[in-house]
Design brief:
- The protein is built from 6 helices and 7 strands; from the N terminus they run αβαββββββαααα.
- The N terminus is likely disordered.
- It is α+β, with helices and mostly antiparallel strands.
- Helix 4 packs antiparallel against helix 5.
- Strands 1-7-6-3-2 form a 5-stranded antiparallel β-sheet.
- It is 43% helix and 24% strand.
Length: 215
């Protein structure tokens, strides 16, 4: 039961599956690369699709990692921008040999999560004074709350996906770390070679010659 509650809470709080990236660079280099990529530049035209619809990225360095938020321009208001719906927390771990492991987790932004209940509660405060039956008021309140939750969650998931894609594209400029899939042979492991085969054939011939012949 506790595991089920934890999994349910994780799904409600997080808006993107956790990801792990491995790059052949130091944590400081990874952070510097992300900081540069967050600023539109004509020298990085291969990243221009990351800034469509007026999208902007706000990178906040933290101890042992970073925090990334993002928003876009509003199509009907040239000076307005969308809300910061999601937050991507990145943790940078030194993997040795100059490699870095980047752990990514995306979640709701707390103030945006609270905004889910703002409009439904305001409308419900009006509906309670109407002469409508209580069951109808309750039904409308549940529908409004569900629609608000769905809209806000989809917005946060879309924003989180854009930020994760941004991190992947930005770190593509760094070489991918090649980690060995199999461990190196241990010193006490004897590999078959020509000497072993010759010794085995000599032993086999000796045993064959010493064996009594059948009558």
């Amino acid at each position: 039961m506790d595991t089920l509650a934890q999994n349910t809470g994780w799904r409600l709080w997080h808006v993107h599956a956790p990801m792990v990236l491995i790059v052949q660079a130091t944590p400081a280099t990874c952070l510097l690369t992300l900081r540069r990529a967050a600023r539109p530049n004509l020298q990085r035209l291969h990243l221009r699709n990351l800034f469509t619809e007026g999208r902007r990225y706000y990178l906040h360095p933290l101890r042992g990692g970073f925090r990334l938020t993002s928003n876009s321009a509003l199509s009907w208001n040239r000076h307005g921008r969308t809300a910061l719906a999601a937050v991507v927390d990145g943790r940078l771990s030194d993997a040795g040999e100059g490699a870095t492991i980047v752990h990514l987790r995306a979640r709701w932004r707390l103030f945006y999560l609270l905004d889910v209940f703002l409009i439904p509660f305001f409308i419900m405060s009006i509906l309670v004074f109407t002469p409508w039956p209580p069951w109808l008021v309750t039904l409308l309140a549940v529908i409004l709350l569900g629609l608000s939750w769905l809209w806000h969650r989809l917005t946060a998931m879309l924003q989180a996906a854009d930020m994760v894609y941004f991190i992947q594209r930005a770190l593509e400029d760094l070489p991918a770390a090649e980690r060995p899939l199999l461990a190196q042979p241990a010193p006490d492991v004897v590999m078959p070679d020509s000497e072993f085969r010759e010794a085995w054939e000599s032993f086999y011939r000796q045993q064959t010659d010493d064996a009594p012949s059948s009558s």
